[in-house]
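2024-03-11 09:14:02 DEBUG pipeline.ingest accepted 1 chain
2024-03-11 09:14:02 DEBUG pipeline.ingest length=179
2024-03-11 09:14:03 DEBUG pipeline.predict start
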Amino acid sequence: MKVHLRTPGVEEAIAVTLVRSGAGADAPHLVTVGAESGELELEWIDADGGVVRHRGCVRPFRAVVEDDAVMIWLDGRTRRFERCDPTARRAAAGGGGGGVGHLLAPMPGKILEIAVQPGESFEAHTPIIIMESMKMEMTLSAPSAGRVARVRCVAGELVEMGACLAELEPVTPATESAP
């Protein structure tokens, strides 16, 4: 998952990337903040938070996403960040003209509804999947029109952050005429 965050009142955004560095639910995460990177372990205890393990230290955290703001409580302080990229929760189109985009879970949660079927075309910003995380619903959509190549989750499923929920393909003249 990659988001661009900034502290309110500060013009320059910071790119934050969080990806699993291995396979499996217990694999550590590689976090990159700006130009610095490091490995850490995130253990979600409930939908709102858990513990971070980094360099032998264990720290509790809480995280809340509210509209385009992210509030994180860590080390006794609450930090508020604003999302700079309104498409951060949307599918990223695959690189290069006919690539497949992947709709990824922006955080751990439960799939509530799948609003599309494989082979179905959709317009930009059409709801594709609705999920619940940290006691709130999120509607996931794509920034541009496309077609659903494959749905990789089911309603009721618990998913991890970064899980691929659907594979999307751009709409081209060749795919428009396909059944």
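2024-03-11 09:14:41 DEBUG pipeline.report The helical segments are 173-176.
2024-03-11 09:14:41 DEBUG pipeline.predict end
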